[in-house]
Description:
Layout: H1 2-20, E1 28-36, E2 39-49, E3 56-57, E4 68-80, E5 85-97, E6 105-114, E7 117-127, E8 133-142
Antiparallel strand pairs: 1-2, 2-6, 3-4, 4-5, 4-7, 7-8
Amino acid sequence: MRKIFLFLLxxxxxxxxxxxxxxALEVATDYACFRESTSCRLEIYYALSSDSLILAPAxxxxxGPGKNLAYVLAYLDLFTAEGRPVDSVSKTTVFRVARTDxxxxxxxxxxxxxxxxxxxxxxxxxxxxxxxxGRDTLEVTVPDLSSSGxxxxxxxxxxxxxxxxxxxxxxxxxxxGG
Length: 178
């Protein structure tokens, strides 16, 4: 009798803990640096797979029929290599996905103006429909691009180039680089 009572007492607690555990979002991050007058523009990229998010059907006010929406809140903290806070940003992005029968890469850019140096980036993501979260940390080196000698910004490869004038299909699909 005592074992049954203990089971009945602890079962709801164990069930609640299991229901609170949600699988983590897998996030890929990268960065690039570009000259911007006297400082550098640091772009932080993140990408998620559409099959890890909960997609909600769109209506006529949120994207039109046949589209599905994923709502992702990104919160990014930027610190110096020594741990001093530099800046932070939060951004809610609505990703529009036309087809749910295929996996899509969903990507976003967060940017900062910073002086050259070493930085640490902490990125937290939250799927606002499922409650799933994802995190990543990135070590960043921003070069001094303001010198009078020859220097280059980060190499940027195109991803999903389209011709807006004629609304043609993408001309190429390549990965962004940092």
